[in-house]
What we know:
Layout: H1 9-14, E1 22-28, E2 31-37, E3 40-45, E4 48-55, H2 59-67, E5 69-74, H3 80-87, H4 93-96, E6 101-103, E7 109-111, E8 116-127, E9 131-143, H5 153-158, E10 172-173, E11 180-181, H6 188-196, E12 204-208, E13 214-218, E14 221-226, E15 229-236, H7 240-248, E16 250-255, H8 261-267, E17 293-303, E18 309-321
Parallel strand pairs: 6-11
Antiparallel strand pairs: 1-2, 1-5, 2-10, 3-4, 4-9, 5-8, 6-7, 8-9, 12-13, 12-16, 14-15, 15-18, 16-17, 17-18
Amino acid sequence: MDSKSGSDPVERRYDRRIRGVCLISAAAGRRMHLHAGCWVTAAGDDPPRVAVSIPREFEGAALALESGVLAVSVLARDQAALVDALFSGRHSLGDLGRTAFLLTRRGCAVPERALGYLELELAHHREFEDALLVVGDVRGGALLREVEPSLTVNEIQAAGRVRRAVLPRSGFEDAGDSLRRAPVEHPAHGVLGRVLGRRSFGPMLLTAGRGDDLVRVETRIIQCSHAPPRMLVALPHDSPALARIRSGRGFALSLVGADQRPWLMERMRGERADTDAWPRSRGGFALLPGAIAHFAVEVEGELGGGDPSVVVYGHVTQWDWVRPDAPPMASWPGSF
C-alpha cells in the first residue's frame, strides 16, 4: 500500500485478485527499510528470478538501488499482527521486536516465522514516475514453515486494516548485527518454487493477438505502478505469447472468477480457445466472458530482452468491471 493506491481506478479492480502478502526488505550500509507489499511475482526459472515493484516514496527503493540487494518474505496467515504493527507506524526492528527477525547473507532482515524468504540480486530495473520496478536473480532463500496458509491482501482489506495505515516512507538505522543468520537452501532453482509456491496468488487470463487470438492462463502478472497504472507479464523468451505481444504491442487481461475454474480446466488445453463470440477491448483483444474485470495494456518496454525470461510492461488503457461481486479464483495447477 502507498499514498496513490486510493486514487487508482485500476488498482480498485485489480484488488479483487487473490494475492499473498509479502514483506519487502532492503538494506544498504546501516540503513534498513521494511514494507508489506504484493507487487511481487516469479519472473523466470533459469536463472530463477523475481520481479518486485516498490513505491519510490519508500526509502527501500533507494536502498535497493544502492546495494543491489532485496529480500522478499511470504507471510503466513498467523502473521496478521505483524502487518497491523507495520500499518500502525512500527517500522523498525526495534519497534517490531528484533528477536522476531533473521538476517540474510547480504544484510536484509526477514521474519523468522515467515513461510519463506528469497534474497535477490538486482539484474534489471526501471524507474517509473511513482515506482521502481526491479528484476532480481535469486541468490539465497529458504522455506521456513510449511503448515500455515498464506496471509492474503484480501483478508487484510476485509478486516479494515489498511484504512488508517501509517506509510513507511523512511527507513531506520540498524545493521542487524545481533540478528541470527537466516538459513539458506540450495539450489536456488528449487528455492524459488518452494517459497513462492506457498503464496496464495490468483490467475489471470492473458490474450495476445487480434483476430487469431492466443490465450493463456497466467499467474506471473502484477500491477507495477499507479501513475499511470501499469501491468507487467513475465514470459519465456521463446514463448508464442511473447511473440504475439511484441508484434501487436499490447495484450489484454481478464480477472478470473472462482466459478470459471471448471470451464478453464476443460477448455484451456494449450494456448487456443474459441474466442469468436467473446467481447473485445477497444484495441481488439479478446476478453473472457463473465470475468470479474478486464484490463487492456499498451506495451511500453521490456526488461531482460536478451535473457531466457522477459518482463514486458505497459500502461493500462482500458479497465472495466464485469462481475465485481463475484469471488475470484484462488489458484491454478502447477503455477507460482
